[in-house]
């Protein structure tokens, strides 16, 4: 769609933005990994929590996805749609909601102590696991739901006609699908949890609950030990690359056979089975909805009493979100080709914090990194959002060019007329959705900004974290509600704009 010079410029810009910081990390560490006891502890905890988070998330997702796949009830489509919400939900918002439920004075501990048990702390390994399950259970469920839907309806009919129930039906019909889908889901969530910095920052910490990324943050911000930070960044990069390759390899699977693409629900299920499925779905909905409900209840009334620095931080986040969206789309449109998508996905295997640390090391000798906080954060958010945007744009771009390029040439349409009358109406909807997605993700980012930002340059998520650190939880809850409103508002507004007057 774009001319080749623009494709070359965009490709070179993305490649340089990703590879140059990695080179800076390599150079600063001298390519040597020499870890002490604290670094090894962070390494093993990173692996341990990622493995546990992936296994627990997929384990519960097995039951939830199975219950959703074989159940029909009012609101089923809403429940499935809700499973996509945590993807755009700001991490700090969800964490505050989880604290409201599982914190020292939360609902869970209130009921738990009423039954005669001791209070359970949300901080440490257990808190990290709860947060990761909250974010990744919906993703694992959506992945497994695709697996259930891929089972040919003919196999289900055959199992029913043969009278296969219970274990026999599971081993003959469902198990072959699970063997292929579950390892991929575990690998993907494992890769995500390896670089879950915001969760470790807010709920982890301490010698026993420090991840590699949290150790990098502490080395840069508090100890000014850039050599150790670079060495840990090299280790984190290696882990991220291995996890990405593992997810990619396990994601390749054979089909389960051919069906007629018709939804096929299991018939004549026992009453206990239907009750069990209903209980699982209800508990999952409660787990996902209750934290946000309590947070909204606590925070919405305090919006009017938020101090001015919080509103200023919100303005910075809005500017950051709009800028990241514009930059990402400016790069994505020329890269909406097969080889462009390869370049655009370079950042998938790179942790945002490692990328930010590389940029920190690059600009530190020349300018004060604090002065570049918003610009660096904007660029990182734009580049790291590219893979998601290209997945949305590329199919639409290829279909449009395939269908209308010859017609446009025969009509003698110039570049601007072709874009105005042919391309833009068919790309407006995916561009609107992409802009909303980028804006929501950028609004809730609590990664790179922690390395560069301070009180004077804080975005809204960082300001909320600072309020939590000073134990002003009521203001933090109100700030989280404001962040949630802005994030969802951006996503809804851009998506609605894209749908308006778009070609179908």
Describe this structure in words.
- This protein has 504 residues and is mostly helical.
- It has a domain at 306-504: MetI-like fold, CATH 1.10.3720.
- Helix content is 75%, strand content 0%.
- The protein is built from 21 helices and no strands.
- Helix 18 packs antiparallel against helix 21 (473-499) and helix 20 (460-469) packs antiparallel against helix 21.
- Mean pLDDT is 81; it is low at 254-265.
Q: Can you summarize the main beta sheet?
A: none
Give the fraction of residues assigned to helices.
over 70%
What would the principal axes of the Cα set say about the shape? globular
Low-confidence stretches: 254-265
CATH architecture term of the domain at 306-504: Orthogonal Bundle
SS summary, helix count: 21
Instruction: State the total count of DSSP E strands.
Output: 0
**CATH class descriptor name of the domain at 306-504:** Mainly Alpha
Distance between the termini: 19 Å
The average pLDDT score comes to: 81
In N-to-C order, the SSE pattern is HHHHHHHHHHHHHHHHHHHHH
The CATH topology of the domain at 306-504 is MetI-like fold
Structural class: mainly alpha
Quick one: CATH superfamily of the domain at 306-504?
MetI-like
Q: Brief overview, please?
A:
The protein is mainly α and 504 residues long.
Topology:
Elements: H1 4-29, H2 37-69, H3 76-82, H4 85-88, H5 91-102, H6 107-114, H7 125-150, H8 153-161, H9 166-194, H10 197-203, H11 212-221, H12 226-250, H13 271-299, H14 308-332, H15 338-344, H16 352-363, H17 373-410, H18 415-443, H19 448-452, H20 460-469, H21 473-499
Helix pairs in contact: 1-12, 1-16, 2-7, 2-9, 2-13, 5-13, 5-21, 7-9, 9-12, 11-12, 12-16, 13-21, 14-17, 14-18, 14-20, 16-17, 17-18, 18-21, 20-21
